[in-house]
């Protein structure tokens, strides 16, 4: 293995420390305690673990943390009512509704109900538009985390060839906006891309966000490429015992680490950055809601 392992977990811990400093500054200089409300509907175990760790880390950086756990059969009207209350609550600066929501609820109705000023996931059309034209506002958490790791690893991104695999509203599309803003030449690949391996071969930066375990192989990569593996896939791990599983990314780690210049591990790469960026977004929205310039 020749690649540098990009330590997202360590980077995220440092970012949370800086965020704690911003929280302390907002409290002491402006009397503002940034507040984040996380809403989860239903009992999906993975989402529950994720929401619990969001709530814990929010409190750890000194923010006001509120968690609403609603039963699976919650109606759309009841959820929209709660969002409306949170929109009007001055102690709350960020609202996150954990997706996916159960079938009786239309996710677009939920997204449209969240005030864009409190939309820390950057899901609302208003914030997606702001991101596209470069106005200040929250930036989608996972793409922001990827950008931070890339800047930290490579410094200047200008002129780099970036290939993003996956074009979701959550990851691929917003990340393309961010990399364009940093003057990369961006290619977006997806399930209909012809000869994906040769598209990936020309990339200085590869971001894999397809949700396909171990799809990107080492021999697809340009030697020295920087690889950001967003994928989180649970696969059977019989070597750990009967019925056991483990997490893998979208990149076949061992073969890729022999060719890449740097690579994120799964777990411990992009995942921890996502939560830290959610907290960073809450600082941004708390600042903007109070007429302050958000910290860089
Ligand atoms: P989606 O399912 O919404 O999107 C997947 C994208 O990958 C689609 O654009 C799809 O193409 C493309 N794709 C699927 N199969 C292939 C293929 N064989 N070749 C090329 N492209 C393909 O997923 P998300 O964006 O929500 O998530 C992607 C992955 O990232 C998942 O593993 C998810 O768990 C993980 N994730 C991790 C986060 C983190 O914090 N680390 C946060 C969010 C997601 P098409 O549009 O043509 O269907």
In short:
Strands 1-11-8-7-5-6 form a six-stranded parallel β-sheet. Strands 3-2-4 form a three-stranded parallel β-sheet, with helices on both faces.
Q: How would you describe the overall organization of this protein?
A:
The protein has 296 residues and is of the alpha/beta class. It folds into two domains: 29-115, 3-Layer(aba) Sandwich (Rossmann fold), CATH 3.40.50; 141-271, NAD(P)-binding Rossmann-like Domain (Rossmann fold, 3-Layer(aba) Sandwich). Helix content is 42%, strand content 16%. The chain is globular, with a radius of gyration of 19 Å. The mean pLDDT is 96. NADPH dihydro-nicotinamide-adenine-dinucleotide phosphate (NDP) is lined by residues 142, 165-168, 170-172, 189-193, 196, 209-212, 215, 230-233, 270-271, 274.
Helix and strand composition category = alpha/beta
- The number of helical elements comes to 10
CATH superfamily of the largest domain: NAD(P)-binding Rossmann-like Domain
Main sheet makeup: 6 strands, parallel
The CATH topology of the largest domain is given as: Rossmann fold
